[in-house]
Amino acid sequence: MNMMKHMHIVLFIVFLYTSNPSFSYANDICVAETNINTPSGYECKPQDKLTVDDFVFSGFVPGEIKKPFNVKLTVVSAEKLRGLNGLGLSAARVDIGINGTVAMHVHPDESELLMMVQGKVTAGFVTTEKAYVKDIKVGDVFVFPKGQLHFLINSGTEIAIAFVAYSSSTPTFQFLDDLLFGKNHLNTSIIAQTTFLDVAQIEKLKGRFGGSGSG
Q1: Is residue 14 domain-shared with residue 78, that is, in the same domain?
Q2: Which domain, by its residues, includes 33?
Q3: How many CB atoms sit inside 10 A of residue 97's CB?
């Protein structure tokens, strides 16, 4: 099955996903004025100023590689496709290299629907009660409920590609490794006390993810 056929399947699934009555709160058309962001979201572009380009995104191709995970991520949110604003919908493309991974992360306010179009991945999420993990392949769809810690690992022999739909036009991402080791929010001693990791290992991880050594 070629990529165009994959895209048609994805668009059909996304339509079903967002046509549920639970999404009836969404605005019909509120194209985002991305330079005017208020506490309640983007302001709406005047109707008489709308053009077809407000509803089109070009560039749903592999993004820049994210090191050290060997993964490429292209997110299409209201910031890039302004016509998505208020519709409770956004999309992403994930390209995972051989032995690559999408590290443990959460979307605090969104559920995620992942559709495999190439390769094979091991996907899963973790709740307070149980871990739900499965190898998924082309034609499989996996849902990650809102706020659950989840991951993807390329468990095949080729680049794995998946398309994603989020239940928000402005999805948020919180990566565990980046929060702990890529930011300078917590010093090493606090991370060691709260995770029981060795100080030397924490400083090594901070060096790899861009955080300060002992900060």
Answers
A1: yes
A2: 3-65+73-95+109-120+138-146+159-172
A3: 16
